Amino acid sequence: MVATAETTRSEQTDVRGDSAWVQHWKQLRSNPLGLFGLVLVVLMVGSAVLADVIVPYDPTQILVGPRLGPPSWEHPLGTDQLGRDTLSRVIMGGQVAMLVAVAALSVALSIGLLLGLIAGFGPRWLDNGLLLVLDSVRAFPVIIFALAVITLLGPSLTTVVLVVAITSIPVYARVVRTQTQSLSDNEYILAERAMGAGTPRILGVHILPNVIGPLLILASMDVPLVIALEAGLSFLGMGVRPPTPSWGTILNNGYNYIQNSPWPVIAGGIPIILTTLGFTFLGEALRDIFDPKLRRDV
Amino acid sequence: MTHPAAAPTRPEAPRDAAAPLLDVRHLSLDFTSPRGRIHALRDISMTVPRGRIVGVVGESGSGKSTLAYAVIRLLAENARVVGGEIVMDGRDLLTLSPREMRGIRGRRMSMIFQDPMTSLNRVMSIGQQMIDIQYRDPISKAEKRKRAVEALRRVGIPDPEDRVNGYPHQFSGGMRQRICIAMAMMVEPALLLADEPTTALDATTEVQIIGLLERLQAEIGCSILFVSHHLGTVAELCHDVVVLYAGEVVEQGSVRDIFHNPGHPYTQALLDCDPGRIKEKTRRLPTIPGVVPSLVGDQVPTGCIFKTRCPHAFDRCDHEVPPSYAVVSGEVAPDAPHTARCHLRDAAEERRP
Prior knowledge:
The complex is a heterodimer.
Chain A: H1 2-16, H2 20-29, H3 32-49, H4 51-54, H5 86-121, H6 124-139, H7 142-153, H8 157-184, H9 187-194, H10 199-235, H11 247-256, H12 263-290
Chain B: E1 22-33, E2 36-48, E3 53-57, H1 64-72, E4 79-88, E5 91-92, H2 98-104, E6 109-112, H3 126-132, H4 141-154, H5 160-163, H6 173-186, E7 191-195, H7 203-220, E8 223-227, H8 231-237, E9 240-245, E10 248-254, H9 255-260, H10 265-273, H11 315-319, E11 325-326, E12 339-340
Parallel strand pairs in B: 3-8, 3-9, 6-7, 7-8
Antiparallel strand pairs in B: 1-2, 1-4, 4-5, 9-10, 10-12, 11-12
């Protein structure tokens, strides 16, 4: 009898197996594109975090060397039209891009989450009012809206963050609102209310954990969009102010001298492509892992 | 499930002479809708005595669930109470602030729901949820966990120390309903509202759940308002029965009186339709002819609500709303007042069928 009980217990453990996180890691490891994305993302985020330590030169320092020089041992990605080291500028530009992405998305996430919860759980009139505002904001084309705000406030890093945050809020708020509404219809919310729980408790303990997963995945897939937008605005001269390096500014400068040297354009473009790809692959892999219903291969 | 006619032999719970735990007086409730106001409950008066199980029966749309939700005040946004009171512990629940009402929910009363598949949060383990609902108690988490395990053991979940870590999808429907009951009973409420807790379960599980409710009620000594359309379970479990039809109480009394000596033609018809009571082999199950009258706006019929489907309806039913008549039963001392709202029960009425 004892032996039987032992067997059942160990079989149960086998069925349950590894913890959820280990399972997720195993799933990610078996997805080559996702793994590639993870490597790229780690590389980009790592270089952004360590940028100040790993840059070989001061990215704004004008060096006494060749202008628009090709890659060499001293300057692996060459130099720009002022003789600044392109690799240093690309690394610092990555930091700026990550900074914009992280700052803008965290602002957008928190405000979007809050508004979405209010709209989804609050009274009907509040929901309608919020939706009207959110949809109005979303109706503006992003670039036009960005140009308008920048004209008003002047180009700066903060303005870029603000623009990205404002244009992303409606998307997150809508997702959260829809999720909240469908979750509120669940009987366990009713059951929780029958146990005397108030609104903050229901939202915090029951709705939030259900909403946060899809939201984070959505945000991770938005990172490339934000980076591209920042680069785009900087390319147009509406983003980060020189001499602070940005991938967009590097591209723009290189574009002006493309007939003299292709290297600055290549050096500014490749990181945008790689980062975009990395976050997209990783985001898709994460979505497949956390939301198996959307998985294509099953 | 035991045959309803044979069932009401269960030992009677002691009947407290003091005021009932829950006293619903002349409750009327409307739902606003695009088609107009729906008079979902009209002049409902009923009581839940202390320590007794009161069954609320009626067909779909009769307002039985609405009554339960009105008591715990968890109605949809478009519900409007237009009259009456719901008295518990000497206070009218309808006049309490939302905050005061929250203080009552989960302490003095708790509720179990129809669908155990959706009444537990999928992303939290059973233990987390059971610990969570004890948020008011100033005891350690380990203490709360021990209580949760104990509650699970009490409702017959095997190996509760291990199973408390499980997630809802790892349990069957019957087990989940047991867990829901464990959670509702953990707070030792004075009143448990059960909204068709066995409807979503198969028949054998249903018997177990009924047995469990019966045992827990005896242990805790709470009252239960048991909403069901299944006459068999009501006969099995309840002490008293309230029969609802189209938002009105048509008959109430002890389960024995209602099942043996129905005083209202609707109750009679309902009992005749119970497949468990049909004696001879038939291909056609009996039904009550006609449909429930519309409850929208002024379309609610005057006079008796059941007259359109009643085989005994006569002219008096057309214009006069029947009051509650006492139904004379054969017993010397009926253990609950047996009343029916039908003119046929009026002693002055000559035309008895």
